[in-house]
UniProtKB/TrEMBL annotation, chain A:
The lineage of its organism: Bacteria, Pseudomonadati, Pseudomonadota, Gammaproteobacteria, Alteromonadales. This is 2-oxoisovalerate dehydrogenase subunit alpha. The branched-chain alpha-keto dehydrogenase complex catalyzes the overall conversion of alpha-keto acids to acyl-CoA and CO(2). It contains multiple copies of three enzymatic components: branched-chain alpha-keto acid decarboxylase (E1), lipoamide acyltransferase (E2) and lipoamide dehydrogenase (E3). The keyword Oxidoreductase applies. InterPro entries: Alpha-ketoacid_DH_E1_comp, DH_E1, THDP-binding. It comes from Thalassotalea euphylliae. One of its GO terms (molecular function) is branched-chain 2-oxo acid dehydrogenase activity. It comes from the Bacteria.
From TrEMBL, chain B:
The keyword S-adenosyl-L-methionine does not apply. It comes from the Bacteria. Its cofactor is thiamine diphosphate. InterPro entries: THDP-binding, Transketo_C/PFOR_II, Transketolase-like_Pyr-bd, Transketolase_C. It comes from Thalassotalea euphylliae. The keyword Acyltransferase does not apply. The branched-chain alpha-keto dehydrogenase complex catalyzes the overall conversion of alpha-keto acids to acyl-CoA and CO(2). It contains multiple copies of three enzymatic components: branched-chain alpha-keto acid decarboxylase (E1), lipoamide acyltransferase (E2) and lipoamide dehydrogenase (E3). Residues 4-180 form the Transketolase-like pyrimidine-binding domain. This is 2-oxoisovalerate dehydrogenase subunit beta. Keywords: Oxidoreductase, Thiamine pyrophosphate.
Length: 398, 325
C-alpha cells in the first residue's frame, strides 16, 4: 500500500450502504499456500522454490539432525545430564525451510523453538552442546538455560526468554539495515501465543509505518504451553492482523517445507525490493511437549496428536526426495545412525568441559567491569577460597 | 490440620476465596483447565467454572489491565503472572494504574480488591529469566502492598489476607519452595496480618532479617552461627510494603546488630531501605554497621548460580564479621 492513499479521506471511497452490517474477519478468505501433498507428490501448478539437489539434501540433513538432536537431548534431560530442553517436533519445516530461503547475511531474531535455523546455517554440533551444558566454551558463557542460542557469526540473535520482545527489535534492526543500504532483511520468528503480547502489536505497527524490511514469521502451532489457539485469539489467525496493520501477508502450510521456502523467498524479494515488512503465518502443530517441564497429556488427547503425526513435515519431504530419486531408504538409515553416534559422542565431550570461570559472573554486565563489580568479585573470590568445597565449579581455578 | 506443600496451601486459599465470594476470579496464562504451569490453580475451573477461572491470552499488560478494570467495577480479581520475570510487560499497569487509581481519583475509584500472584526467585537453575526477585521495583511505588510468604502456613494465611485487603497486593511466591516446603496447615479459614513481621528465633548477638525463600538460607546460617557459639535473632519480614519497622527496631535495640539478606542484587535492593531506616531508629544502639548479604550486582546467571547467591556461608561469614567488628 502506498502511504499516500492511506489518508482517512480514502476510507470514504468504499461502497456506500444504507443499512448497518458488520465486516466479519472470518468472512475474508485467506488462502493457504501448499505445494507438497502428504504423499510427497506435488499439487498441480505448484510453483516450486529455487531448489537444486544439493540444497534439497542440505535441507533434509538439517531435518534429520534436528530430529536426532531432539531425541538425544530429551533423553539427556531425562537422565539428568542437562536441566531443560525444548523440541520442535513437527515444526522443523518452518525453521529449516525458513533459513534455507534466506541469504546468510539476513538476520534471524527468533523465539526459542527455532534451532532449525541454526542447524541449517551450520552452527557446530559442539556449539549446540556447549550451550546446553552451559560450560566455559558456550558462546553465551553459560548464563542462560539450554537452547537459548545465539551466534553473531551466523546472524542469529541470542534468544531472550521474555516473549515477543524481539518483535519490535526486529523492526528496528531491519530499519537499520535499510538505512545502511544493506542487501539483507531481518526474519523475526515467534509463536501465535507470543503474538498476543503488546510488543507484537507495537512491532508490527512500527515496521509498517517506517517500512522496515522485516519478515515477521509466525509459527502457529496450535498451543501456547497448555493454552489452545482458540483461547488465545478469536480473529482469523495471526494473518488477519498483518492485513490490519497494512503489512503484506501470506498464510502457508507450515508442514510443507517447499511452501515455506517458496513463501520466504517471495517475502524476502518483496521486503528487499519494496523495503517494507511482510507477515507469514505458518500453520503447523506442536507435536511434542512444550518443554521437558511440561506434560501435554494434561490438556490434549492422544488422538489429536496422532492426527497431526500424519502431517509430519520430514516424512513428507523425504517422500518427495525419493520421488525425485535424490534420496533412498538406505542413505536415510545410514544418516540417522551416524548422527545418533555423533551426537552421543558430542554429549560425552561437552559434559566434561569445565563450567565458566568465576570472572565470567561480572563481565558483560557493562562493556567494562565497573569498580563496584570488581570489588564484589574479589570479595567473592576470597569467600570461595575459604569454602572451596561449597563452590566446586569455580574453586581452585584462581 | 493437614500436611500441605506451599502450592497446595495456595490452592487451598484460592479455593476458600472463590467459595466465599462469587465475584472472585482467578486468571492468567495456562491457569484454567491445566491449573497453571505450577498447578497452583488446579481444580478451580472444574469447581467454579470457566467464567471464574480461565486462561488468558499471553499478554501480561492485558492480564493486569483486565484485573484493574474488574477490580474498579467491584469484582475481586486474582491474577497470576506466570513468572515474576514476566511481570515487567505489566509494569505500567501496576505502577501507574493499580497503585494510583485511588489517589488520582480522590477515592472516587479504586482497584483495592485485586491481587497479583507471581512465582519469584532463584536457586532452580533457571538462569536469567526464571530467577529474578523484583520486589524492590514495586516497593518504590506508593499505593501497592507487597507480601512474600516463606512456608505453606504463611502462604495460606497471607494470601487470604491479601485477597481480602482493600489495596492492590503483589503476592510473591517462592517457587524454589513450591514443592520443597511442606508443613502443617489448618484446613479452616485464617488470616495472617499484612505489615507484621514474625520473630522466628530469639537471640542476643545479632538480628538476621529476610523474607520468603531466603529465610531458609538465613536459618541455616543461624545454625552455623549457633555451632560457633553465636546467638541469632531471626526475623521474617513477611511484608515488604508496608514493612514492620517496630519489630525490627525492637530486635536491633536488643541485639545491637542487624544483617539483612535478600536474593536480589544488592544495589537498590530493599535491604538498603531497611538499613537506612533502622540506622535512623537505632543509631545509638548499633554496635556494628548494618550488614547486607545479597545477590551480586549482575543479572541472575545459570552456571555460576551458587556463586551469585546470598547463601548460608556468605551470611555466616558476615555474621562473624559483624559480631567481631
Ligand atoms: C513475557 C512472557 N510471558 C510468559 C512467558 C512464559 N512462557 C514461555 S513459552 C510460553 C508459551 C509460548 O507460546 P507460543 O508463543 O505460541 O510458542 P510455542 O511455545 O507454541 O512455540 C509462555 C507462556 C514468557 N517466556 N515470557
Amino acid at each position: 500500500m502506498n502511504a499516500r492513499t492511506n489518508k482517512p479521506e480514502a476510507y470514504t471511497n468504499g461502497a456506500e450502504v444504507h443499512t448497518p452490517s458488520f465486516i466479519d474477519g472470518h468472512s475474508v478468505d485467506i488462502p493457504i499456500l501448499k505445494l507438497l501433498k502428504e504423499d510427497g507428490s506435488l499439487y498441480p501448478n505448484a510453483e516450486l522454490p529455487e531448489l537444486d539437489q544439493a540444497k534439497a539434501e542440505k535441507v533434509y540433513r538439517a531435518f534429520v539432525f534436528h530430529r536426532v538432536l531432539d531425541e538425544r537431548m530429551t533423553a539427556a534431560q531425562r537422565q539428568g545430564r542437562i536441566s531443560f530442553y525444548m523440541t520442535a517436533l513437527g515444526e522443523e519445516a518452518t525453521t529449516v525451510g525458513g533459513a534455507a530461503a534466506l541469504a546468510p547475511q539476513d538476520m534471524i531474531m527468533a523465539q526459542y523453538r527455532e534451532q532449525g535455523c541454526l542447524i541449517y546455517r551450520g552452527f557446530a554440533l559442539t556449539d549446540f552442546m556447549n550451550q546446553m551444558f552451559s560450560n566455559e566454551k558456550d558462546l553465551g558463557k553459560g548464563r542462560q538455560m539450554p537452547i537459548h542460542y545465539g551466534s553473531n557469526k551466523l546472524n542469529y540473535m541470542t534468544i531472550s526468554s521474555p516473549l515477543g520482545t524481539q518483535i519490535p527489535q526486529a523492526a528496528g534492526y531491519a530499519y537499520g539495515q535499510k538505512l545502511q543500504g544493506k542487501d539483507a532483511v531481518t526474519m523475526c520468528m515467534f509463536g501465535e501465543g507470543a503474538a498476543s503480547e503488546g510488543d507484537f502489536h507495537a512491532g508490527l505497527n512500527m515496521a509498517a509505518v517506517h517500512r522496515a524490511p522485516v519478515i515477521f514469521f509466525c509459527r502457529n502451532n496450535g498451543y501456547a504451553i497448555s493454552t489452545p489457539s482458540d483461547e488465545q485469539y478469536l480473529g482469523n489467525g495471526i494473518a488477519s492482523r498483518g492485513v490490519g496493520y497494512g503489512i503484506k501477508t501470506i498464510r502457508i502450510d507450515g508442514n510443507d517445507v517447499l511452501a515455506v521456502m517458496k513463501a520466504v523467498q517471495f517475502a524476502r524479494n518483496y521486503a528487499l525490493e519494496q523495503q517494507a515488512p511482510v507477515l507469514i503465518e505458518a500453520m503447523s502443530y506442536r507435536l511434542g511437549a512444550h518443554s521437558t517441564s511440561d506434560d501435554p497429556s494434561g490438556y490434549r488427547s492422544k488422538e489429536e496428536e496422532a492426527k497431526w503425526q500424519a502431517h509430519d513435515p520430514i516424512a513428507r519431504f523425504k517422500a518427495w526426495l525419493i520421488h525425485q530419486k535424490w534420496w533412498d531408504e538406505a542413505q536415510d538409515k545410514a544418516l540417522f545412525e551416524s548422527l545418533r553416534e555423533e551426537i552421543l559422542a558430542a554429549v560425552k565431550v561437552a559434559e566434561k568441559v569445565a563450567k565458566p570461570p568465576v570472572e565470567d559472573l561480572v563481565t558483560d554486565v557493562y562493556d567494562q567491569v565497573p569498580k563496584h563489580l570488581e570489588k564484589q568479585l574479589s570479595e567473592l573470590k576470597e569467600h570461595i577460597n575459604k569454602y572451596p568445597e561449597a563452590y566446586p565449579f569455580t574453586a581452585g581455578r584462581f | 490440620m493437614a500436611q500441605m506443600n506451599l502450592l497446595q496451601a495456595i490452592n487451598n486459599a484460592l479455593d476458600i476465596a472463590m467459595a466465599e465470594d462469587d465475584s472472585t476470579l482467578c486468571f492468567g496464562e495456562d491457569v484454567g483447565h491445566f491449573g497453571g504451569v505450577f498447578r497452583a490453580t488446579s481444580g478451580l475451573q472444574e469447581k467454579y467454572g470457566k467464567e471464574r477461572c480461565f486462561n488468558t491470552p499471553l499478554v501480561e499488560q492485558g492480564i493486569v489491565g483486565f484485573a484493574n478494570g474488574l477490580a474498579a467495577q467491584g469484582s475481586r480479581p486474582i491474577a497470576e503472572i506466570q513468572f515474576a520475570d514476566y511481570i515487567f510487560p505489566a509494569f505500567d499497569q501496576i505502577v501507574n494504574e493499580s497503585a494510583k487509581f485511588r489517589y488520582r481519583s480522590g477515592n472516587e475509584f479504586n482497584v483495592g480488591r485485586m491481587t497479583i500472584r507471581t512465582p519469584y526467585g532463584g536457586g532452580i537453575a533457571g538462569g536469567l529469566y526464571h530467577s529474578q526477585s523484583p520486589e524492590a521495583y514495586f516497593a518504590h511505588t506508593p499505593g501497592l502492598k507487597i507480601v512474600v510468604p516463606r512456608n505453606p502456613y504463611q502462604a495460606k494465611g497471607l494470601l487470604l489476607a491479601s485477597i481480602r485487603d482493600n489495596n492492590p497486593v503483589i503476592f510473591f511466591e517462592p517457587k524454589r519452595l513450591y514443592r520443597a516446603s511442606v508443613g502443617e496447615v489448618p484446613e479452616d479459614d485464617y488470616q495472617l496480618p499484612i505489615g507484621k513481621a514474625e520473630v522466628i528465633n530469639q537471640g542476643n548477638d545479632i538480628s538476621l532479617l529476610g523474607w520468603g525463600a531466603q529465610m531458609e538460607v538465613i536459618e541455616k546460617a543461624a545454625e552455623l552461627a549457633a555451632n560457633a557459639g553465636l546467638s541469632c535473632e531471626v526475623i521474617d519480614l513477611r511484608s515488604i510494603l508496608p514493612w514492620d519497622v517496630e519489630t525490627v527496631a525492637q530486635s536491633v535495640m536488643k541485639t545491637g546488630r542487624l544483617l539483612i539478606s535478600h536474593e536480589a542484587p544488592i544495589t537498590g535492593g530493599f535491604a538498603g531501605e531497611i538499613a537506612a531506616t533502622i540506622q535512623h531508629e537505632c543509631f545509638l544502639h548499633l554496635e556494628s554497621p548494618i550488614a547486607r548479604v545479597c545477590g551480586v550486582d549482575t543479572p541472575y546467571p545459570l552456571s555460576l548460580e551458587k556463586e551469585h547467591m546470598a547463601d548460608h556461608l556468605k551470611i555466616f561469614e558476615a555474621i562473624k564479621r559483624s559480631v567481631h567488628y
